[in-house]
Amino acid sequence: MKLYYAPGACSLSPHIALREAGLPFALEKVDTKTKTTETGADFTTVNPRGYVPALELDNGEVLTEGAAIVQYIADLKPEAEIAPKAGTLARARLQEELNFVSSELHKGFSPLFNTTDSEANREAAKQKLARRFDNVEAKLADGRSYLLGERFSVADGYLFTVANWGGHVGFPLDRWPKVRALMARVAERATVQAAMQAEGLVK
Predict the structure, then answer these.
(1) pTM greater than 0.90
(2) Is 3.30.70.360 the CATH number for 89-189?
(3) For residues 43 and 64, what is the distance between their CA atoms, to the nearest angstrom?
(4) Cα 28 to the chain's mean position, in Å?
(5) How far is residue 150 CA from its own chain's centroid?
(6) What is the average pLDDT score of the chain?
(7) Roughly what angle, to the nearest 10 degrees, separates helices 190-198 and 177-187?
(8) Are 62 and 54 in contact (CB under 8 A)?
(9) 106-128: per-residue pLDDT in tens?
């Protein structure tokens, strides 16, 4: 398999999942502005939507959308236990968290990357995003270590990826100590360190 990624983008989430599952894969970096890969290929021929992540399977098919990709990876290696078994309520809970991170947090950060937007719009986006992080903090208030309980899942990898953007767009996470504690736990995982090193995010 080959994962098309951009350093620090949402593609870090399936990158972490691949390492957690212990699956063999290759990486190909994408310039998201020019839509070209590091080998000079036109990335839109891989993913016509033009954004990462994209996972090219061994049979040549391409899977897109991070929440779908991480579940596919988890199901390829169920013994890694990074997602509950398909068809269970626990799996629906995982999908619930993945959808929340995708639609409410991931997309919530988008306006903050638009440096040409008005300060008023950026402030409104921050306030809305803050309410969403309040939701995550409340979920963690029961003392759980991860979003689904005491076991790391692909939802935690996605949350870690997205929440890390806060430091780049003037959205510090100081207000949410439980979120920061979860992120610290995820950051300590060897697979996460390896993924970040491979993308040049840490030394």
Answers:
(1) yes
(2) no
(3) 12
(4) 17
(5) 19
(6) 97
(7) 80
(8) yes
(9) 999 999 998 888 999 999 999 99
